[in-house]
Structures
1.
Amino acid sequence: MAKTPHYAMVIDLNTCVGACMAACAMENQTPVWENKWRTYVHDMEIGGDNDELIRRRFFPRLCNHCDNPPCMSVCPTGATHKLDNGIVMVDDELCMGCRACAMACPYDARYDVTYDDVDQGKEFYGELHHRSRPSVDKCSFCAHRVMRGLKPACVETCVGSSRLFGDLNDPKDEVSKLVKSGVAKPLMAHLGTRPNVYYISDIERTT
Amino acid sequence: MERDEPTFYGNGVNQDLAVTTRYAAIEPMYDSEEIPDVLLKLTEIISGKEEAFDKLAGMMEGLAGLPAAPTKAAWERLKAEGEKSPFTKACREVGLIETAKRLHTTPENLDKTLREKGVYHEESMHELLEQYAVPHKLPTTTASGRIEFFSTLFDMLRSQGFTTPHFSVLARPFAAECRENKTMDQALDEDEFYFTYGKVPTVSYGSTNSNNPVLAAINTWKKDIYTGVWLHPDRAEKLGIQSGDKIRLKNTLSGQEADGHAYVTRKVRSDTLFLHSAFGVENPQLTRSYAMGGTATNHLIPHNVEPVVAGFRSQEFTIRIAKA
Amino acid sequence: MEGMFYSTQNVWTWWIAIYLFLGGLGGALVVISCLTHMYIKPHKQLVIWANLSSFVMLSVGSLMLFLHLLDHLAIIHVLNPMVLVNKPDAWISWGTQFIVWMMVWSIVYSLPYMLETKFWTKMPVVGTILGLFAWVGNLPQSIHNIIGWLAIINGIGTVLYTGLLLQSFPAVALWHNPGVPLLFIVSAFSTAMAFLLLVLYLAIRQDEDHELRVFYERTDVILIGIELLIIFVFFHFTTYGLESARHTAAILWDDMGWIVGFIGFGLIVPFLIEFRGVTKGWNSAAPVVLAAVLVLSGGYLLRHYFTYAGSYERPYPAVNSIRQHSQAGPVTKVVAVMPSTER
């Protein structure tokens, strides 16, 4: 029997131009009018000290789908839960919106979906709108797509092939190889969250 | 983002020989029409309704090789079916058939491959080199049979009277002229900058997709970076300008003036201003992009045509800025 | 990744500070009043005052949380006691149960004494309801003590919860350490002592309570002293440690509200007043009353600053946690985003 997949994402910061926010918003119907997104692409300026090259860096971020998710342990209702394949999900039927998860998340990945956002979403996204309840929402690695064998919307739309999505339990998977090689590193691993989103930075890049 | 390209063309970036085209990612907004259809209507106004299509399609056949007769048939059919931009769609339809024919494949397969992969590969770079690479295939196709750094085209143009240095038969450098009676070596004044511009991934200038609410939301989030005039902190400090300050820009050559907001960043050279060319929309019907503000590049870039390929000399001037 | 950004949050603000303050205070009130009544000096009035005040405080505090929920109906999932089986790792689950059952048992514990008081039995509506529970007054003493202990255990749980709640957020150095629950427990009991001193001096006003008042004052002095020591420990912890803790230190130790307001008037001044009261005594109740009011204000300020000064470290600027995201200005390697001016 095939091993249960353990999904992870690798983001190559060298090729990101920040195009995925819109694809994610449309797929997951986030309240963009309130500047609430499941994934953000920061537009940063890095380097520059001691005559180093100054670069513009697009820095995409999203829920890290931690193996030890602090947002899940603090969740009193069980709304935040982890699937066998590693994806951390939010059940908006259970979520009461206490925001303990937002406080616990080191990656600032949680955001409020309010009653107003639900109402306005109906207008904004029309008849296809699927949100019915408020919750403290976050990225789901597009679990609904992944389960149909598709890639997350942000990966699908990524023009620079900056975002890769794969299975860490498959040694032949590109993502798995990049993670194993050490080129792709997680954010703030010292917190013990065991994140599943890895980044390749300019300096680390070998190819 | 919102249009299907009317034609199929070579893949410019990759060194392999391949065909590509553009597929619309989002629905066109409002009652916007495709450019070929707009051009057709203009031709109708200029050349008269009767002859317009044949003239335009005939010219396209001559220039781009798109056969006029089947295009006309498709256009008339699509028009009768009530299609929104029938000319563009007709070009696309015929283009797909013709390109497929050339590639010895079916239009369906070509379309499918392009949708899935973005390009249709004809030959890889290596196969091309194998066949055409110069070291293996000497003599070259030049008049002398050797590699020539000489333009026969420009030689011909010179004989037709185009004798300015731009039409030199040998590749030669040109000093840019950004200021009157001043060379590029001369120092800029304290408030004077060279100018360059670029695009944002979320919108093309003035198109209706600039009003797309999701894209507009991204622009709003990055408003300072996207709509601001980029300015190096060393220069900004001397001028007493901070990020977000309203500034007045003036083209020293053309005298054009525009307002903008400063975005102070080290990502731009200290002698140059940078602007994203997507903003400063002036059509109030495009409510979101209109509200976004920003500086329109056409308020700063003069009508200054480069003589050889008739492109705009859109960066050959300097700009003075001051706190508004 | 190069450069980290430090930012405070705007998710849990003053209303959580009130929740934590009233939760700790209310929980400690129940614990102290029940223990006093059972083991130090039987004092029915004190029990009624403490437990009913606690009930009001917890109602107000929980209301703060409830009003700020995104989906009010879903609260049913934490009110259901099965939550302890389903989500035993979440402190809000325990906290909600502790609060609910502390409120229930402390009121049940107070019922017999309320039934003896005309003020309550003659009150419209309340009197009628009390009448329905007259049988509680006839329960044997042993059962009554068990009810008291149920209230005490849930009270301790509530006090503990207010500290453990913040401790469960690992990204923030100021919160994620065992000092926080300790500090909050000490502070909760200290503020509860202060509150009871106010009750004894201003509401009950019996000469026979002198010894009890002295006992509370002494305990409070000790608790404030310990609290000062813990604050010193936090000073050291935040100043010489993790970068995010140092960012917290930069916020706290640059804020007069924290230094003068909390440490000065919330701890040192009442400590000195009560210390003198314990060693030499005061001629009037006024200084102790003043000290008690200061301690209570300090109790709120402590939680206020703890919620605001918790600093996250991130490799990108914050978006969700600060309402007005701004990228204006050149980004330097380490950006300090100060807490919002909302407070």
Note: Residues 38 and 173 of chain A are 25 Å apart (CA to CA).
2.
Amino acid sequence: MLSKKNRIGWKYFLIAMPFMIYVIAFYFVPLFGWIYSFYNYNPALSFSQLKFVGFDNFMKMYNERSEIYRVLKNTLAMSFLLILVTPLPLIAAIMMNEIRHNKYKRFIQTVTTLPNFISWIVVFALAFAVFSSDGLYYTLLKNLHLDVPVIGLLGNNGAAWFFQAGLYVWKTIGWTMIIYMAAIAGIDSEQYEAARIDGAGKFGLMRHITIPGLAPTFFVLLLLQISNLLNNGFDQYFVFYNSLVADKLDVLDFYIYKVGWAVSDYSYATVLGMVKSLLGIALLFSVNYLSKKTKGESIL
Amino acid sequence: MSGMKKKSSLLAMVVSTSLLVMTACSGNNATNNASSAPASSAAPASSQAAASSPAADASAGTSDYPELPRDPITLKVFIGGSDANKGIWNTSIGKVIQEKFGITLDFITGDDVKEKTMIAGGDLPDVITTGGSVSALVDSLIQGGQVIQLDDLIDKYGPNIKKNTPQALEIMKASASNNTGKLYFLPVRVNKAASSPVPLKSALAGFYTRWDLYKAIGAPAMTNEDDFLKVNKEMQDKFPTTKDGKKTYAFSAWAADPFPYIISYPFSMGYNNWTANTSISATTGEVVDNYIAKDGVFWNGIKFFNKAYRMGLFDPEGFTQKIEQYIAKLNSGQVFNSAASFWMGGNDLVTNTGNANAELLQLPGPFPGYMALYPKDAPGGNLLGPARAITKANKYPERTMELFNYLSGDEGGRLLFTGVKGVDWDVVDGKPQLIGKMANTTDPGYNDYLTSVGTEKLNKLSNLHEAWTAEDGYPLDLKLVIDPATVTPAEKELAQQFGADLYPGQVYDKLVKDGKAVTDSKYFAFTAFVKQMSEPNQQIMVKADQYFLANVAKFIMAKDDAAFDAARNKAVDDFLAMGVDKAYAEFHKLIDDAKAFVKENNLE
């Protein structure tokens, strides 16, 4: 007979089981695919028919270092921009928390969360409708007799990183805000009560209660963001990539896609993906360690 | 609204199929890009009605074969392309196939990346079609045992295929067999030239210009590309905006696809696009290494677009928009030139401009090339772009081959390309003719009807080209027979302006016969026997494509000749640094080998 404690333990274990299976199946099993980095992979051949090439694909990374450097520059630039805008959902959540009209609050929340569920190809279509030379934005400028550039934002090389960061914020701010809203809901209301008794106004409550209450959540999300420094995602850049902004939007994930699926150099793409993952893990542990040392907060 | 949706999906399908045919032709015979070919309305009458059963059709062709079961089965076929054909093929043609053979076709659509993923994951359909980068995998597919050998099946169940396309089978044995000399892949769109060819309604690709606007500026004569640019400038100056106030441009393009740059200009100059980033002269067979031949037809085309850009004629959004937006601009009248005959504006352009004679047509004069003007010899069909193979996952290879055989004969081919006998066509007064809704091409619901029948462009199931002349003397696709009632006002006006009586093809035909223009009726046998380049060199070529697509705006937007030359020279240097010249060297070696093979085997 299992003791009560063990029974509860088993219950929790069983509840967690499907998620563990999911993580193992989709995050750990694919790691076996790294073995292809040592072979010349061909999708039509079985593993036993593949040619072993040792570290050739790793050497290729060194030989193509100028390409890697170019792609990394774009990747890091986009990532730093996205880290800079990390506080935006936090600020938006705090502001949202101050809205007293419940229907209006829900409306805003729904409207800001909705873009998270729109695929990037649809975002492209919307962006084209708004920012192409005959789109909403430039038509408005024309009607106001303002200068209209020949090439719209989608082809503006100088603004490419900022435009993409803006789209990213537009798409994700509502979703991330939900996490902060949940964290705000978790702050003990007695703290607000006590602060009010101490004479704190609206901004005082924000400054002394809400923001410190959200700090742990913010740092967890920031750490995750930093550990994702090399992961810009693929689809956003895939749909917005064009000849005018090619040198700005060629980020690592998109580059790996091109190497793998367009050039059909699967093994080299595997090497790049592997190195990216390992660097991501190294980054995560580094920032976690730094956070632990400096702030005493960590996620691991 | 739903009508519009259907129209755009049909268009997308037509475009994607055409793109597949034109740009994904790996090892493709550059001279077999004809999308259609009309037969003279005075063609000989039917010698005999088509046979009524597959076995009878086969026996009429060559020999009988053992009867196969007719219990219902479903064959999954990777057909590629847009989702318009996705899923169970529930069309009139699909139903006839179900009734005759008990076979339900379930089409898998998508691009070569999806197909490669399916192959890699062991998720093989019953039939695969090569195309794009999958064409490069043919030897590996054979080596890996993913596709089955077809020789015995053809012997037993392929009399039509053997009778109608014998050379295609030999070509496939020589060039797509992993050096085994066996047959694994079946080509599509095999064709033969008529002894006295009748020109098509129009040529295949080049610059297709707004006829109504050209006429509105007085249809000035043109003799070279500078004249053409001047005419476009004049049209753009006279019509700077559309009816709803949008700025117009003479030329445009779309992002992430070399199509706009490897088709219009080279075709206009008498070159076809070919595999390995080359262009091939339709008249001499000369092969141009697109990326590194600084004064070749490819870079001359880029220079042409650069001139257009500097004259304010090239739409800058051609670098950022997708193909859907490009087509929308053509159909709304915002862009004056399209790249091929499958973008001529149609009813949408007439409605949007309010001009009954608004149509995109190839204007005679400025350029010499009118490609695919006649039905022409294509004994190897489209070679690997695409070809079909039966996979090891197929439990019914005999019945699959029986179906392919049926669709590669007169009866099945006519079903596939024209529709159901007695409903869509029939022999009337001794001639096969379109009947019913299929004959009513001006009906607003015509395109939807074609979709419900299933005829449009699904030409990956037969070995034969839609223009293949059946034994009754008419093409398999009876829609190709030119009917004066279906010639548009613009086509007629152009024809009459340039001394012909009915349609533009007659004008081009005269120019070709007078030696003032060229077409690609000559068949270069060596093109069918060029083997695949080595994998590293194939990868270099794709990288070169990526480089070109990432930089094309720099070339076209160069501010003057010197800046253009500098940008082009830097690009060529970068291509050389990538090793593109070595890849081209290997390709030319393969061409030499193919020429030698053709000579040794008297295949010219």
Note: Chain B touches chain A at residues 113, 116-117, 119-120, 133, 136-137, 140-141, 143-144, 146, 246-247, 255-256, 316-317, 319-322, 325, 535, 538-539, 542-543, 545-546, 549-554 (CB under 8 Å).
